Amino acid sequence: ISRSSARSESCQGPPGPPDIATGLLLSGEEATSISLSWRSPADGGGAPLLGYVIAVEPCDTHANLVSGFEILCGTGSPGTGGCFTLLPGALESFVVRNLSASSAYSFRVQAINRFGRGPFSQKSSPITTACDGDMARS
């Protein structure tokens, strides 16, 4: 490590959880699917990101956030009251599938590193699935 890079690392303070993920965007793909994308935190907390928690409200027990990942409903992640799932890795997008038609959903994203979970992003405005595949903001 050069002196200048060691100096900048020491100025960042002790490692900790990542900052908030930002720029959460929603878009429709099909009548029962919603695509999410976001930007990783500006500060990863001094460690690589391990993944994200994705929270959806209200909880839809038929939703398939990502094939093969467990969806936990009912208890929600602290402060969400909906479903949530853990996405490993530094993904910055995914598609929520098998949602109920003509239903409104809101989402939040939370980054995780080895030091803990960062704060949840601001909850998205509700987006409503439609039978004909059109998406409408509630």
Word description of this protein:
With 138 residues, this protein is mostly beta strands. The chain contains 1 helix and 9 strands. It has one helix at residues 3-11, and strands at residues 22-30, 33-39, 49-57, 83-88, 93-96, 104-113, 116-117, 127-128, 136-137. β8 and β9 (136-137) form a beta hairpin. The longest helix is centred in the first third of the chain and has 9 residues, at 3-11. It is elongated.
Structural class: mainly beta
Question: Care to count the β-strands?
Answer: 9
Which percent bin holds the helix content? under 10%
**Roughly what is the average pLDDT, rounded to an integer?**
75
Strand portion:
35-45%
Care to give the gist of this entry?
This protein is mostly beta strands. Helix content is 7%, strand content 37%.
Features:
single chain; 138 residues; mainly beta; 9 strands; 7% helix; elongated; disordered N terminus; disordered C terminus
Task: Produce the secondary structure layout.
Blueprint lengths: L2 H9 L10 E9 L2 E7 L9 E9 L25 E6 L4 E4 L7 E10 L2 E2 L9 E2 L7 E2 L1
Antiparallel strand pairs: 1-2, 2-5, 3-4, 3-6, 6-7, 6-8, 8-9
